[in-house]
Amino acid sequence: MADGIEPQDKILLGMYGIDKSFLGVPVLQDVQLECRPGEIHAVMGENGAGKSTLMKILVGVYQPDAGRIELDGAPVRFHHPRQALAAGVSIVHQELNLLPERTVAENIFLGREPRRRVGVDRTAMERDASRLLAALHADDVISPRALVGRLPVAQQQLVEIAKALSFRPRVLVLDEPTAALSPHEVDALFDRIRRLRADGLTVLYISHRLKEIFDLTDRITVLKDGRRVDTVRTAEVDTRRLVHLMVGRDLDHYYPPRATPERIGEVRLSVRGAGAGMLHDIDLDLRSGEIVGLAGLAGSGRTELARLLFGATRMATGRLEVDGRARRLRSPRQAIRCGIGLLTEDRKSEGLVLQLSVRDNSLLAVRALGRGPTRRVGLGALLDRVDLRGSTAREVRYLSGGNQQKVVLARWLATGARVLIFDEPTRGIDVGAKASIHELMRELAEAGAAILMISSELPEVIGMADRIVVLRQGTVAGVLPADASEAEIMLLATGEPDRSGVGVGAVADGGAA
Amino acid sequence: MTTSTMSPSAPLRLAAPGTGSSSAPVWFVFGGVFAVAWLLVELNGGQFMTVDNLQNMAVRSVALGLVAVGQTIVLIGGSLDLSVAYMVSVTAVSASFVMQGDPDRMALGIAVTLALGVGVGLVNGLVITRLRINAFIATLGTSLVMSGILNALFTNFTGSVPREFQALGYNALGPVPVAVLLLLAVVALAWYTLRRTRFGYHLYAVGGSAEVARLSGVRTDRVVVTAHVLCSLTAVLTGLFLVSRLRSGAPWVGPDGGYDLESIAAAVVGGTALAGGRGTVAGTLAGVLILAVVDQVFNEFEVNAFLKTLIRGVIIVGAVALYALRNRRDEEVF
Predict the structure, then answer these.
(1) Which residues of A touch B208 (CB under 8 A)?
(2) Cα Rg for chain B, rounded, in angstroms?
(3) Predicted pLDDT of residue A21
(4) What is the CATH number of domain B22-36+48-326?
(5) CB contact under 8 A, B217 and A111
(6) pLDDT in tens, B60-98
(7) pLDDT single digits (tens) A303-353
(8) Are A288 and A448 within 8 A, CB to CB?
(9) Measured between beta carbons, which residues in chain B are less than 8 angstroms from residue A106?
């Protein structure tokens, strides 16, 4: 895989001294990246390491604060993705940018339709689309006339790649292209990428999956906390070394003490053989007094599981019990009545009504329930419990991320929820507020709540959880005790055979940006 | 969005170009409505399939059909136009006011109304794209402005169009009324524009996802402005047709015809998505014909006007619910 690339001095693409801050927070600092012609170069790093930001700077979506980009030794500056495309740098973004209602050919040539007299030359367009698909060896499975929305995701991805190739790029950036693919599809995609390399294309491959990086790439640039750690030849590193490069970190945050065994009580919520959509055969118990950490790669089904437990998605198979009673949750309303609360990952769109006040948001669920199973708690006492000060009449959109999270929490405390599901509770929250959210979670557990905490940040999972459940491809891959290491978690999450004798894997999740 | 023959096992190879916006289901509904109407009228002892009757329905469809084509174009682009009703009135009044019954001023009258159409379309499009005002509010605003000006300047029928101009409304080539030919020509032109030109491709893209279109290098604002100009121009054609039938224009001819909401209803019954990105003019034409056939039956039976409105409402919601059900079933396929 890594053969044939001898150290040459020729650099096709160089990024030097790249700095980028958002609102004063440095995201990239002095980052360097050099790609040789015809290599597959991996850019890897943890969630928030800056991979996606670096790529967006490369293709002109963002402007760097400092630093320079060189293509074939000549400095370039892209102010718009179109300029990068024209210069020969194409990207396939993590999320698909296609029009489901239009055909494959129409999507590939959107904005550049070949013309004949006044009309679009559809024959030429479909012929060229076929040719591009043929270059990917996909012309026999994808018709240029097929509607994109009717293709499986793996084929849609190929359409995106064909679109990127239609610009005749010299550098192709693939940002986590395998997130939604099955192992078989990943293999097929890799074959195609290798063929593109054989045709002389340089590929920048963004991923956190170690196995893929070892299978596919020639060299690896590792980012951590917005800095380049190192650039290594894939053939010269093993899993252990690579993980060390990625996660070797200082503990910068202290977590409240874990639960003592006698504090952990009876099972509040339990599911057996639960499944729906991508989820299948999930067994899970949440106990009073315990914080269970739920880890897994992006796309492993963490958020889907949270929605299932909260009744937002209906369970297709399996059994669910709350406090020992079998329940069917057909809607969030029923889940709330059973004493379950969900703190969604996306507070702004799913967690809060931004134009409403702190008071109205806090009391939203309890009011919706009417008289329901509600302990009447005064709003003041409620906000004291979540340690939120200030006027209750403020609109929540003016609050900081941490305080918004407290408002959502207050809402579930008001309903007397005994099972709390936190989906990425501290994403986008500053360090101080993070600590206070963590302390609150622990206090709630000590007061008898059963807590499920989903997090992409492994230190948070390890620091907070009394037990760690790891998801992989829609089911529970394993359960680990509180003091598990990042490596153990990632081994389960990636499910890959160990390469170096020490079980280590990749790191969770893709772009925070 | 679906072909009428989509089945779980239909291979992708069968997907014809543009299957995503087939109007087949709408024509299917039209066939059903037509058959039921025929049956009802015949059972009632009336005659449905007479040249007169069919001509009548066709001509009835022209006024709504022309503007509904334009409405379809803006809807596909993810916008909408509530100002078409007053655009129709402005056209009718200014055409008869400029022409004053003089055949020599016919060309001038038509030119003036077309210019007005382009102007209003530009204003609509630019207010929406430059000032970033929601299309609903923007076109409601221009509609109110036009209504205010029109009602301040004219109170009743004003001027007249010359006899020659009335050929548009009353003449026929053999059994086919000229106005129907005009409608068919506009539909054909719109079909070509949507299916065969870059503008058409970009319009579907902008309506489907403005962000994807923008990232692909489509100048989305231009597309939206152009769509609004085309839409206003179809309203001008409706106005010209109406004034040729009425001989003279009055401020209320547009709003009385309810062309704003009816054109949206016809497009939606014809399978156009209010959210944009999907729709066909052929479907809209079928939608217009469905409404026309229903009207014809109501007239035949002398149905009470309120009941008429009620039944129309049921038909519009029912048709759209039917497509929604079909779509949902298709989605479960994969």
Answers:
(1) 99-102
(2) 20
(3) 87
(4) 1.10.3470
(5) yes
(6) 899 999 999 999 999 999 999 999 999 999 999 999 999
(7) 899 999 999 888 889 999 999 899 988 888 889 888 899 998 877 777 788
(8) yes
(9) 201, 204-205
Q: What are phi and psi of A99, to 5 degrees?
A: -95, 110
Nearest CA in chain A to B209: A99
pLDDT at B211 over 80: yes
The Cα B93–Cα B249 span in angstroms is 4
Torsion, Cα of B90, B94, B97, B101 (10° steps): -110
Of A319, A293, A278, the C-alpha closest to A461 is A293
Amino acid at A424: E
**Domain check: are A292 and A225 in the same one?**
no
Please check whether residue A106 touches B, CB under 8 A. yes
φ/ψ of residue A271, rounded to 5? -125, 150
In a domain, A5, yes or no: no
Burial class of residue A357 (count of CB atoms within 10 Å of its CB; 0-12, 13-18, 19+)? middle
Residues A186 and A327 in one domain: no
Same structural domain, A177 and A283: no
All residues of chain A having their beta carbon less than 8 Å from the beta carbon of residue B209 are 97, 99
Binned at pLDDT 50, 70 and 90, residue B1 comes out as very low
Count of domains in chain A?
A: 2
* Chain B CA closest to residue A149: B20
Task: State residue A437's pLDDT score.
Answer: 86
Give the residue on A whose Cα is nearest the Cα of B14.
A146
Same domain membership, residue A276 and residue A243: no
Residue A129 lies in a domain: yes
Cβ–Cβ contact A127 with B under 8 A: no
Domain span at residue A43?
A: 13-247
**Cross-chain residue pair A101–B19, CB shorter than 8 Å:** no
Domain co-membership, A76 together with A177: yes
A509 assigned to some structural domain: no
Q: What is the CATH number of the domain that holds A177?
A: 3.40.50.300
List, for residues A351-381, the tens digit of each pLDDT value.
Answer: 788 788 888 888 888 777 765 444 455 788 8
Across the interface, of B20, B201, B205, the residue whose CB is closest to A147 is B20
Confidence of residue A470 (pLDDT cuts 50, 70, 90): very high
Q: Which residues of A touch B283 (CB under 8 A)?
A: none
Note whether A103 contacts B: Cβ–Cβ < 8 A.
yes
Chain A residues closer than 8 Å to B192 by CB = 119
